[in-house]
Amino acid sequence: MMRQVLERHHNAFLITLAHFGVAMPLERSQAHIHADIQAGLEAQGREPGSPVVLVGHSQGGLAALRYAVDHQDQVRHVISVGAPWEGSVSAARISRLFSWTGRNLTPALSDMAEGSPFLTDLHADVPTIADRVTNIYSTHELFIQPYINAHMDVPGVTNLLIATEDEYRRHLRAFPEYEVDDLIMGRITHLGEMSSPEVRSRIWAKVEEVSDQVRREG
After folding, report:
1. Domains and CATH numbers, the chain
2. How far apart are CA 5 and CA 109, in angstroms?
């Protein structure tokens, strides 16, 4: 899903979650993310403290938000796409399937369940970076039910909804409290978000906007 995104910019590099975001808690994945960022910057000949923009999809969006909160001097903006901000029912179900072992074999998925300590702490901390967060989600999230669980109802966060015109009108009628800042026209499922040209164009437009700002400051 990320290949076409990465090919758009020579400064882009891929960050992965430890143990594929399953067997290690998301909090402990932060060190893994840090190492990937440092390696990516080094490979590009950039200083280890160079400003970065993080783009995270689904579980990766939550991890990127946590990293941005903890590294506010370096992360200039975060773009979360299809992230289960209010929790993922499917992740919670998978975690319960393994509960018979008496061990938490999928701690990263447990972190995505509604009310988990990871999400509770993230909700408390994200307001400190809200003005540098762009959140994109779709009416067809599939793994996030209801889809509005991907809406970040935090003052300062920019929320973009992927929907058709009819779906957008239904959204406004059903969830007037979840007003969005802009609309990305389309009918895109959770798995297709990062390969969507419409979503990619919004991501790169924001990356370039932030990059221009960094250049002006430098």
Report:
1. 3-217 (3.40.50)
2. 25
For the chain, 218 residues long, the average pLDDT of each consecutive 10-residue run is 67 81 82 93 93 94 96 97 90 56 65 91 98 97 92 98 97 96 96 92 93 90
Rounded Cα distance between 49 and 152, Å, is 28
**Token pair for 1:** 């899903």
Token code pair at residue 39: 């390696």
Q: Distances in Å between the alpha carbon of 32 and those of 18, 24, 27?
A: 6, 10, 10
* Distance separating alpha carbons of residues 164 and 171, to the nearest angstrom: 10
Could you tell me the pTM of the whole model? 0.91
CA distances from 4 to 34, 64, 185, 216 (A): 23, 20, 20, 28
Please give the single-letter amino acid code of residue 98.
F
154 φψ region: left (φ > 0), alpha (ψ -120 to 50), beta (else): beta
